[in-house]
Amino acid sequence: MTAHQNFIAGAWIPAAQGATFERRNPADQSDRIGVFPASAAEDAARAVTAVEAGRQEWATAGAEARMRVLERAADIIEERAGDLAVELTREEGKTIASATTEWRRSAANLRLYAGEAVRTRGETFPVDGSLVHTRREPVGVVLAITPWNFPISIPSRKISPALAVGNGVIFKPSEVAPLTGQRFVEILLEAGVPAGAIALLQGRGADLGEALVTSPEVKAITFTGSYPTGCLIHRLAGPDKRLQLEMGGKNPCIVLGDADPVRAGEIIARGAFALTGQACTATSRAIVVGDLYDEVVGEVVKQAAAVRLGNGLDPDVTMGPLATKTQHEKVLGMVDIGKGEGLTLAFDGDDTGGGEPGGFFVGPKVFVDVPDDSLLAQEEIFGPVVCLQRAESYEAAVETANSVEYGLAASIVTKDFARALDFAKDIEAGIVKVNSATGGVALSAPFGGIKHSSNQTYKEQAGHGVMDFYTTVKTVYLAS
Predict the structure, then answer these.
(1) Over the stretch 225-245, which tens digit does the pLDDT of each residue have?
(2) Which residues contact 409 (CB under 8 A, 6 or more apart)?
(3) Are 280 and 246 in contact (CB under 8 A)?
(4) Predicted confidence band at 309 (pLDDT cuts at 50, 70, 90)?
(5) Which residues participate in catalysis according to the annotation?
(6) CA-CA distance, 381 to 384, in Å (whole number)?
(7) What is the per-residue burial (b if ≥16 Cβ within 10 Å, else e) of 140-164?
(8) CATH of the domain at 295
């Protein structure tokens, strides 16, 4: 079994104290993925020092050179997407189709941000007697802390723009998906990113996060994860760092009385059960207005019953395991809480996963007639569990949808265009979907939530101002 390492100062090295952790396939605990360094504060300090010292070579490489390197990295991913997807599925549990799509999406992210390398520009201003213009420069060292549920798609949309404009990057992937993070760094290095411009640190955030976040050399932090962790980063970082914090969601799908119940059921189920419900944009609640309720419930149950649960390496499987034992226990615990509250399960999917040994499987769960004050209606579950609720009117449905602390994604199913426009205005969410599932977003559109879902300072992905987070602006006055 290969012992994997950190990448610091141009070398692959173990953690300073020699500590390690292992990762196993969540569908089959007999399948060991590898042993990885369990880094701590000393490793964090090394990485920061190395990237601060080594980033200038990359910053001065020139925009076109940086563009070509990122495009070459995209080429490499596309050439190896099949093998990379197998590793991702073994490590994180998602289906092989989803893993392949994610790696290809990451190649597209690299190409998108490669173009930003040559599109980043300043402005000129008419001032009598002098030329006044702005220039954009890299912020310096960017820290990327990423989650396990999209272990390459999310890092690629954070690290690619950081590199495009000449920043140095410290990458701290989730300890749940360390191999995928390592593969990304290996590809970037092979494509031509200078060894001093990037560092990879494996391990638990609790062991090295504070040392990274509080380091004065780290100028920007881009994070995706839980709300409590995001709050801690915000507190520790202080006022001198720029922060991009994307956190949880409790996403609703509202179904109006004019909707097609079959289509509504498909949209709800796709949002709830895709990726085993382990997406911050997953549909967690469906709020049905009027007399369609029973029909919509029936369609959601039909979709849930059609799910094939098992090892994601099986091409016929449509839903893989939960990613960790902790997540498995949490989701089953939430299901037990729902049962303890007296909630009705219209569908309770089998949890055996086709007999795979030791897998963290949870079948689809459909709770019905869930009251607004139920814990299941208020808290993020992050598993294949959906709660259906009744509403007497559009206004009541929106009030229910807005009653939670999160505001990431929301959808509505309706044939009424005017109501759809009202919904876009009335709903408290950063991503609004009409007649489509809450999950799934365009790579070329801004991404981010409101309320507890985001710190709301810088949007991720493309759109106007997307590179603002990764650059500083200087105003230059030229007089003769």
Answers:
(1) 999 999 999 999 989 999 999
(2) 249, 251, 280, 281, 429, 430, 431, 432, 433, 438, 439, 449
(3) yes
(4) very high
(5) 246, 280
(6) 8
(7) bbbbbbbbbbbbbbbbbbbbbbbbb
(8) 3.40.309.10
Residue 442 burial class via C-beta count within 10 angstroms: exposed 0-12, middle 13-18, buried 19 and up: exposed
d(CA 150, CA 98): 10
Q: What is the CA radius of gyration of the chain?
A: 23
Asked if residue 443 belongs to a domain, the reply is: no
Span of 351-365, 389-403, 446-460 with lowest mean pLDDT: 351-365
Structural domains counted in the chain: 2
Burial class (CB in 10 A: 0-12, 13-18, 19+), 311: buried
Structural domain that includes position 56: 6-247+454-479
Cα dihedral across residues 278, 321, 143, 207: positive or negative: positive
What strands, in cross-sheet order, belong to the sheet with 385-391? Answer: 344-348, 365-368, 385-391, 283-289, 251-255, 409-413, 431-434
Give the Cα separation of 281 and 440 in Å (integer): 8
CA 344 to chain centre: 31
Q: Counting Cβ atoms within 10 Å, is residue 12 exposed (0-12), middle (13-18) or buried (19+)?
A: middle
- Both 108 and 240 in a single domain? yes
Quick one: average pLDDT of 350-373?
Answer: 89
DSSP 3-state of 378: helix
Q: What's this model's pTM, rounded to 2 decimal places? A: 0.95
Q: Is residue 93 part of a domain?
A: yes
The 3-class secondary structure across 391-431, one letter per residue, is ECCHHHHHHHHCCCCEECEEEEECCCHHHHHHHHHHCCCCE
3-state secondary structure of 254: strand
Beta carbons of 86 and 197 less than 8 angstroms apart: no
* 183 plus 217 within the same structural domain: yes
Q: Distance (Å, rounded) from C-alpha 408 to C-alpha 405? A: 10
Note whether 91 and 34 are within 8 A (CB): no
The answer, yes or no, to whether residue 150 has pLDDT greater than 50, is: yes
Query: Do residues 257 and 287 lie in contact, with contact meaning Cβ atoms separated by under 8 Å?
Result: no
Question: Hey, what are 296's tokens?
Answer: 């919509």
CATH classification of the domain holding 28: 3.40.605.10
pLDDT tens track for 79-103 = 999 999 999 999 999 999 999 999 9
Residues 419 and 462 in one domain: no
pLDDT in tens, 425-474: 999 999 999 999 999 999 889 999 999 999 988 888 876 678 899 999 99
Query: What is d(CA 472, CA 167) in angstroms, rounded to the nearest whole number?
Result: 11
